[in-house]
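USER: Fancy drafting a protein?

ASSISTANT:
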Amino acid sequence: MSDIDYRKMLKEAGVPTSEAEMEKIWNDINAEQEMLIQNDSKWSPFWRLVTAIVTKPCKWLVDLLADTALPNTFLKTATGVWLDIFCWGLDLERKEATAAQGYITFTRINSVGSLTIPAGTIIETPAISGYVYRLVTSEEVIAKDGELSIEVPVQAENTGEAYNLGPGYYSILPRPIPGIASVRNESDWLDVPGADREEDEPFRLRGQNQFSAVGQYHHDAAYTSDIALFAGIRTDYIYFEHGAPRGPGSANAYIMIDSGTPSQTFVDSINDYIRNSGHHGHGDDMICFPMPLKPFALAAKIYTAANISEENKENLRQGVEDFIRCAFRENSNYEVTKTFPFSRFSLSQLDRELHDQFSELLSIEFNRTDDIVSQMDLPELSDLTVEF
């Protein structure tokens, strides 16, 4: 977007954009009108007054046009409240933040007798970039005699997509429950992914898609608009499969989220909205699926300076592990190039980004040298080992 030169646009329209150009125009007007003002030196008190009361305000107006008004006139470059107003004209509003909801697996020491998991029980993660994420059980659940593990409904302590963590992150009971051996979030634990208040870029993409969705039926843009609005998914995280997979009039939509994996329950709610609530074209057969996952095992060996303390070494090892997991969409705590369908995930790029993030990192070696190439699938970590 920075390649758009709005000042050039003003110049082509004949608008002066610098103080020197404006002063030249004032001088030309003065000469054309045969005025008697002759002392136009920059040291002239009169000319300094003209500059102060005419040139400066005009320069402010031109700067306002070039730097604010014109960029925010177009969907491609509008930001903030300007983008809100633009998309309001497209009948769109920015989506508000939501809290993640799902299920955590509680495993008992033994299955003898019943055991109660109280509502309000907190489940934590280890510190990720210094922050501990917490889930809270939303209702009381009783494990019956003979049940070794149970699924307990939970909700994130706060709103935001950062709580959509990958499997195994939620694993700590700060207040132990007698009889419980472990807690863990599985890969499909999310029923409703958490979301931040919609940022400019995904909101802009929905606005762009709206121009193609005018008819509202029988094409990708209309389904993209409905799914994004109902489920809070970015429009560029929805992939369509055409070619009549179930015969004429059928198509599939594969969805993903920024961090974690959408559960089948969540996807089923989207299908119910599309297929059973009237949000499809006549005769259409469109079904949503979670984006297929393609597992990869990855091992990394890291090297540091010899004089680093053991505590700092472990912090570095954990940081590198979380950073790699972020690249594979298991958390969202770092700015890193992430895996995508139909793309090439470069380990050399990951190497560079790790060095930029961790100054203590001397070198890192992966157990593979080839890139990870995906089609209609999303690379995931089946196993990750990070060691010295």
